[in-house]
Design brief:
mainly alpha, 2 domains, 11 helices, elongated, Tet_reg_excision_RteC, RteC protein
């Protein structure tokens, strides 16, 4: 059983890595990941249906194997909510991150007994927490949803959640320390003026893809989703679903699909022509 589960989890990790390396937005990556993880969980369910050879095998499954997969589902769900709720203003981002961190810390405190059991790698209560149908009394605490008795134990949900929340903590702490936090609405010109994108969002998407395809940043070694993140913060604009917006651009029924880039080219060309045609008064 363990070999089959290990192969399944290894396959899942490979698929998730492939999705993460694709040229998609963060939200699109997370949505695709949710599908892959849920499919893997469904495959793990078939293992449970066949039964276990011993109580220890059941404990190993619900304490170690299932949480490796289930924790990723919880993490991706939490990450999706985090990304969706991000404030546009950089000045609000730090407080937003700290609010999320406080939520995870509170959850750990609410389940302190089992959290310490998880962190210490304890085994004394395994037959209670990781065997289906075992009576755990009131040890589980608050915030535990109703679980499928055929595919869940009292402890596997919380162990999975602990793993996911610790991963979210690490991600958010890295976000708070990331250099990109310096980019955003706090940037000003030397004259003290802020810049906001007030044109059509689709126009900025055109510009972004133009810069991306011509490799203007980092000698082309950059993901377009990174460019989107920076532009969102720098110009206080929401570019969510940028990939879908680009698909709309591709489907335009007109002579030119790149209307904004064409307008940029024509406008700059006109300015150059006007400058060339200018004759100062003294030369007349």
């Amino acid at each position: 059983m363990n070999k089959k589960c290990d192969a399944l989890l290894s396959k899942l990790q490979g698929e998730l890595t492939k999705v993460e390396n694709g040229q998609f937005s963060v939200l699109e990556i997370l949505r695709s990941s949710l599908f892959l993880i849920q499919r893997a969980l469904d495959e793990l369910r078939t293992v449970v249906v066949k039964g276990f050879s011993s109580e220890q095998e059941e404990i190993d499954f619900f304490k170690v194997i299932k949480p490796k997969c289930y924790s990723q589902l919880i993490y991706v769900t939490e990450r999706y909510g985090f990304e969706n709720g991000k404030p546009v203003l950089v000045s609000e981002y730090s407080a937003y991150c700290k609010e999320q961190l406080n939520y995870f810390s509170l959850f750990f405190r609410q389940h302190e007994f089992l959290y310490q059991y998880y962190r210490l790698g304890a085994q004394e209560m395994d037959s209670v927490y990781f065997v289906r149908g075992a009576d755990v009394g009131g040890v589980m605490g608050l915030g535990v949803p109703e679980l499928d008795p055929a595919f869940a134990t009292a402890g596997d949900y919380l162990f999975s959640t602990f793993m996911a929340y610790e991963k979210m903590q690490a991600f958010i702490l890295a976000e708070l320390q990331a250099p990109v936090a310096l980019v955003g609405s706090d940037l000003m010109s030397k004259k003290g003026r802020k810049l906001r994108w007030t044109g059509e969002v689709t126009n900025l998407i055109e510009l972004l893809y133009g810069l991306f395809e011509t490799k203007q940043f980092n000698e082309g070694d950059v993901d377009i989703s990174d460019m989107v993140d920076v532009f969102e913060q720098a110009f206080e604009v929401n570019l969510s679903n940028f990939y879908r917006r680009f698909t709309t651009i591709k489907r335009r029924k007109s002579i030119s699909k790149t209307r904004f880039l064409d307008e940029l080219r024509d406008t700059v060309a006109k300015r150059i022509d006007d400058a060339d045609a200018y004759v100062p008064a003294w030369a007349k």
